[in-house]
Amino acid sequence: MMTTETLNVKGMSCAHCVQAVEGSVGKLEGVSNVTVHLDQGTVDIEYDKDITKHEDIVEEIDDQGYDVEE
């Protein structure tokens, strides 16, 4: 079942940040789309809840050095 979620992420400020988050989260199984909005400090993620958990996405963003506000 596909779901779309928007996360508030602190610490992203440049093109490298966009590549790091989109690249790492996009590699997770079940994730079909990742879009970073630097100006808003948000990340839109479309993923299959049956394959990938919300916690897996948050952990992946944390591993890249950014903080997800929940």
From TrEMBL:
Keywords: Chaperone, Copper, Cytoplasm, Metal-binding. It is found in: Cytoplasm. Signal peptide: none annotated. InterPro entries: CopZ (IPR049740), Cu-bd (IPR000428), Heavy-metal-associated_CS (IPR017969), HMA_Cu_ion-bd (IPR006122), HMA_dom (IPR006121), HMA_dom_sf (IPR036163). Gene3D superfamilies: 3.30.70.100. It holds the Pfam family HMA. Its main location: cytoplasm. NCBIfam families: chaper_CopZ_Bs, copper ion binding protein. This is Copper chaperone CopZ. It comes from Salibacterium lacus. The gene is copZ.
